[in-house]
Amino acid sequence: MNTLIIHAHPEPQSFCSAMKDLAVATLQQAGHSVQVSDLYAMNWNPVASATDFQQRSNPDYLVYALEQREALKTGSLAPDIAGELDKLLWADLLILNFPLFWCSVPAMLKGWIDRVLVSGICYGGLRFYDRGGLAGKRALLSFSLGGQAHMFADEDAVHGDLEPMLRPLQRGTLAYTGLSVLPPFAAYHVPYVSADSREEILEQYRDYLRRLDTVEPLAFPSLADFDRQLQPLNNRERVPA
Amino acid sequence: MNTLIIHAHPEPQSFCSAMKDLAVATLQQAGHSVQVSDLYAMNWNPVASATDFQQRSNPDYLVYALEQREALKTGSLAPDIAGELDKLLWADLLILNFPLFWCSVPAMLKGWIDRVLVSGICYGGLRFYDRGGLAGKRALLSFSLGGQAHMFADEDAVHGDLEPMLRPLQRGTLAYTGLSVLPPFAAYHVPYVSADSREEILEQYRDYLRRLDTVEPLAFPSLADFDRQLQPLNNRERVPA
C-alpha cells in the first residue's frame, strides 16, 4: 500500500508532528511505502491564483476550475501542483495530519486542497462522491486539538457533534472526490495533558494505523440515489449501484 | 455602523467581486462607514507561523495561540496582523465575502481567520460563544458557488443541509468569538446562470443588506447552559443568562 501524508504544523517539535512521524514508522514497518509532504518545511504556497497555470485558456478572466481542466490537458499546471498531484495519484491512502485551527485545517493545508484536488481528474461534471475521480483510494483525517472529546460528543455538546464540524472536510472534500473516508483520529486536549497521556494517544494512533484494513469507511451519498439534476430520487426510482 | 468586508477572490472581475462592490456602495449609501480588505489585492500572507511575532515568549517551541496572547501584551504582533485586528475591532459588522472552495473559504481567507482572530482578545479561556471577545458585533457570510440551492436544501439533499456545511465557519469561528451571526447570503449556481439572473441575485443581496437591522441572528449555545468543564447542564441546573 502506498500512503501519502500531508502534514501542516508550524512547529516541527509538536505533538502533531510526532503523530506524523509515528504514522511514517508504523506504516513502513508494516511494509507499506510512505511519502510525506511537510507543507511548512516545503514552504508550500497555499494561494490558488492565476499563476498556477503556465498557460491560460482564458487569459482575461480566471475561472479556476476551468483553467485546471485545461492545464491538465496541456500539461501546464504549476510544477508544485503537478508534483503533489503525482503523489496523490500514486497513493492508495491519503492522510491529512494537522492541528485543528478554527474547527478546520490550517490555511496551509486548505491551500493544498484548493490547488491539488484538480478539476478534470479528481472530480468534474457528474464525477463526484462514489463516481469521483479518486474512487478506490482511502483517506483519513488525523488531527490534534485543545478541546476534549465530550465537547464534540453529540448535538447537545458545547460544540455539537464532531461529524458536522468535519463535514466540509470529510464529505465536501474527501468523499466528494470519491475517496473512501475512514473514521478520523482525533488527539484531544493535547496542550493540557501529561506526557503519559500523550504516549497513550500515540499508542492508540499506532493501533488504529495497524488495523486500518479492518476499518469500515464512513457512509456518504451514492449518486445512484439522485437524478441528473441531483434531486433525490424516491425509493421506487432508485437505480441499483 | 462600521463595516469591515474581508474579500478573497483571485479574479477581480468575478461575480463575487461585484458582490463586494455592491456591499460597499449599498452600505455607504445608507450612511455607514466601510473598510475592505481585498486579500488577493493586498497579497495577504495566509500562513500562520513563528514570524507572526516580533518577539517570542518561548523562542524554542511555538504554541501559536500562546504567542498571540503574549504578543498582544507586548505589542509585538506582525504589522499585517495588527492592522487587520485594528479594522476588526473598529467594525460593528464583519462580512466575509468569498467563493465557496471545497465547502469552505479559500486558503487566503482561512489564513485571515487563523492569524487575525487573535487569542486573548477575540477569545480565550472561557471567553467564547456568548462570552466571546467580539460579543456585541455582528457577522455574515456572503459567498458565491457553483451548486444550486436544492443541493443543500436539507439532510436528504445531495450535499446535505447547508447549516452543517457552514458549521465550522458560522459556529466554530464567528459565533465562537462572540459575533452575532446573521443568516448567510449564498449566490447559487453563479458560473452557469444568465446575466439577468446574476442581476437578480445582486438585487436580492442589495435588499438583504438594506434590511440587516431587522434580521434575526442565528442561534448558538450560551455558556450559561454548560458547567465549568463545559458539560451540558441539565435544565434544573441552568443559570439564567
Mean pLDDT of chain A: 96
Largest pleated sheet of chain A = 6 strands, parallel
Q: Which percent bin holds the helix content of chain A?
A: 25-40%
CATH superfamily of chain A: Flavodoxin domain
* Oligomeric status: homodimer
Looking at the structure, what is the overall shape of chain A? globular
Rg on CA atoms of chain A, Å: 19 Å
Helix/sheet category of chain A: alpha/beta
Q: N- to C-terminal separation of chain A? A: 27 Å
Weakly predicted, low-confidence segments of chain A: none
Which terms would index this structure?
Rossmann fold; 6-stranded parallel β-sheet; 7 helices; globular
Describe this structure in words.
- Chains A, B: Keywords: Oxidoreductase.
- Chains A, B: This is NAD(P)H-dependent oxidoreductase.
- Chains A, B: One of its GO terms (molecular function) is NAD(P)H dehydrogenase (quinone) activity.
- Chains A, B: Residues 1-209 form the Flavodoxin-like fold domain.
- Chains A, B: Belongs to the NAD(P)H dehydrogenase (quinone) family.
- Two copies of one chain form a homodimer.
- With 241 residues, the first copy, chain A, is α/β, with parallel strands linked by helices.
- The first copy, chain A, has one domain: 3-Layer(aba) Sandwich (Rossmann fold).
- Helix content of chain A is 34%, strand content 13%.
- In chain A, strands 1, 2, 3, 4, 5 and 6 form a six-stranded parallel beta sheet that branches.
- In chain A, strand 4 (138-144), helix 6 and strand 5 (180-181) form a beta-alpha-beta unit.
- In chain A, helix 1 runs parallel beside helix 7.
- The mean pLDDT of chain A is 96.
- Chains A and B meet through helix 5 and helix 6 of A and helix 5 and helix 6 of B.
